[in-house]
């Protein structure tokens, strides 16, 4: 059952459109990440769901109810902000109890609910401390506690981990995953950090320029990006994307770029002869043998793998992920191969759609082989 629905939602600020034609269907109990670069409209989307901004068009529903004009306090949601926004003069216990006090929950009931929430977040020994006597991670847990204590229908989180250092962020990520599993509540989480989205979300809504680019589980966003923008945005190091042309060769599609010639396999009806792009992730390239000739430019050793940047064709740089046991030298001439099963093809333009048919893959043609078959 859908818990939260955005149907053709728009948000304009004067003549500027921050969110355009947004359709999202969030299931009950799902953990959704809104992911995208700065300014893509993710916070505006969350604020509309919270009732802090009103949509200029379309409809937002929580459960069965259209909430476009419903005040934030009436929406049965709780929001956790990037700045924890704790009350500095109140203790941890008082901070957590505050939303209950505002709703005039009787004192005895309040104490019980605060104790339960504190227990769940391992804050019991800290209940009497003031926020300034807590670490960043502990403050974040208090902010979560304040949202949890009312047991709302939907949790909204706006970059809640961005003020924490890397190690603590990793720790809080696993805590949030566990918390979501335990509570089974719908969570909508805004982030520009793809690692957070990939590790926590059931589905990721990738946004760019106020528009939804793809809404799918992390694996699908990674393995079958809907378009060139998603392909380039997801993955570290990023996908190699080569600009070139698609050509119909005896009824079969071939992608060509300087130094590259790839049989593109079965493409969708949208494919056209002319400018297009090919994408291949660093793990889809191998060095040692193969038809692509290049020169090693950079070698980054991370311990468990090497990231090697190779210059091919007329200057294109391709990033390759290799095992750590073989050290490639800068300046060395190497041969490379593409794992055909991992090649993606995109229509022209920055948000050109993916042209691979489901299940179809590209295959790299050796230049001589190509000549022999043409
Ligand atoms: P960030 O990661 O930087 O927070 P975001 O994806 O959350 O970015 P939004 O805050 O939703 O982006 O903003 C989307 C666009 O709308 C931006 O270009 C922003 O400048 C604009 N915008 C947001 N709020 C307002 C406002 N109140 N008035 C005018 N423009 C606004």
Task: Explain the overall architecture.
The protein is 24% helix and 36% strand. The protein is α+β, with helices and mostly antiparallel strands. The protein folds into two domains: 2-223, P-loop containing nucleotide triphosphate hydrolases (Rossmann fold), CATH 3.40.50.300; 228-373, OB fold (Dihydrolipoamide Acetyltransferase, E2P). It has a six-stranded mixed sheet with strand order 6-7-8-3-9-10, with helices on both faces. Strands 19-14-11-12-13-20 form a six-stranded antiparallel sheet. Helix 2 runs parallel beside helix 4. The N and C termini lie far apart (53 Å). Mean pLDDT is 89; it is low at 360-374. The protein binds adenosine-5'-triphosphate (ATP). Adenosine-5'-triphosphate is lined by residues 13, 16, 18, 36, 38-44, 192.
SSE topology sketch:
Elements: E1 2-13, E2 16-27, E3 31-35, H1 42-50, E4 57-62, E5 65-66, E6 77-80, H2 92-102, H3 107-120, H4 136-148, E7 154-158, H5 166-183, E8 186-191, H6 194-200, E9 203-208, E10 211-216, H7 218-223, H8 228-233, E11 240-249, E12 252-257, E13 260-265, E14 274-280, E15 285-301, E16 306-312, E17 316-322, E18 333-338, E19 344-347, E20 363-364, H9 367-373
Parallel strand pairs: 3-8, 3-9, 6-7, 7-8
Antiparallel strand pairs: 1-2, 1-4, 4-5, 9-10, 11-12, 11-14, 12-13, 13-20, 14-19, 15-16, 15-18, 16-17
The protein binds adenosine-5'-triphosphate (ATP).
Bound molecules: adenosine-5'-triphosphate
Instruction: Give a quick account of the main beta sheet: strands, pairing sense, barrel closure.
Output: 6 strands, mixed
Query: How many β-strands, per DSSP?
Result: 20
Helix content: 10-25%
């Amino acid at each position: 059952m859908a818990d939260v629905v955005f149907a053709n939602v728009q948000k304009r600020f004067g003549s500027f459109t921050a969110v355009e034609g947004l359709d999202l269907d969030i299931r009950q109990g799902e953990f959704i990440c809104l992911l995208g670069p700065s300014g893509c409209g993710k916070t505006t989307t969350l604020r509309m769901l919270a009732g802090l901004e009103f949509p200029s068009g379309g409809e937002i529903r929580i459960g069965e109810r259209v909430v476009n004009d419903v005040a934030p306090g009436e929406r049965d949601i709780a929001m956790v902000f990037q700045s924890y926004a704790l009350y500095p003069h109140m203790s941890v216990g008082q901070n957590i109890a505050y939303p209950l006090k505002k709703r005039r929950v009787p004192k005895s009931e309040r104490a019980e609910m605060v104790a339960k929430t504190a227990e769940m977040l391992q804050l019991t020994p800290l209940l009497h401390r003031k926020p300034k006597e807590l670490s960043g991670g502990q403050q974040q847990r208090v902010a979560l506690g304040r949202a949890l204590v009312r047991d709302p229908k939907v949790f909204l989180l706006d970059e809640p981990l961005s003020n924490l250092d890397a190690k603590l962020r990793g720790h809080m990520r696993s805590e949030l995953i566990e918390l979501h599993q335990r509570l089974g509540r719908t969570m909508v989480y805004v982030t520009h950090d793809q690692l957070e989205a990939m590790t926590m979300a059931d589905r990721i809504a990738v946004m760019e320029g106020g528009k939804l680019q793809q809404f799918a589980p992390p694996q699908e966003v990674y393995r079958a990006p809907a378009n060139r923008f998603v392909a380039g945005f997801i993955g570290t190091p990023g996908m190699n994307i080569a600009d070139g042309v698609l050509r119909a060769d005896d009824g079969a599609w071939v992608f060509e770029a300087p130094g590259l010639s790839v049989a593109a396999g079965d493409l969708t009806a949208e494919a056209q002869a002319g400018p297009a792009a090919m994408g291949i992730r660093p793990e889809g390239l191998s060095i040692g043998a193969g038809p692509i000739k290049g020169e090693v430019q950079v070698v980054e050793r991370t311990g468990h793998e090497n990231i090697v940047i190779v210059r091919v064709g007329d200057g294109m740089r391709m990033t390759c992920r290799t095992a750590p046991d073989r050290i490639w030298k800068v300046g060395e001439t190497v041969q490379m191969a593409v794992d055909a099963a991992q090649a993606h093809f995109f229509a022209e333009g920055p948000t050109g759609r993916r042209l691979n048919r489901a299940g179809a893959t590209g295959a790299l043609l050796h230049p001589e082989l190509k000549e022999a078959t043409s």
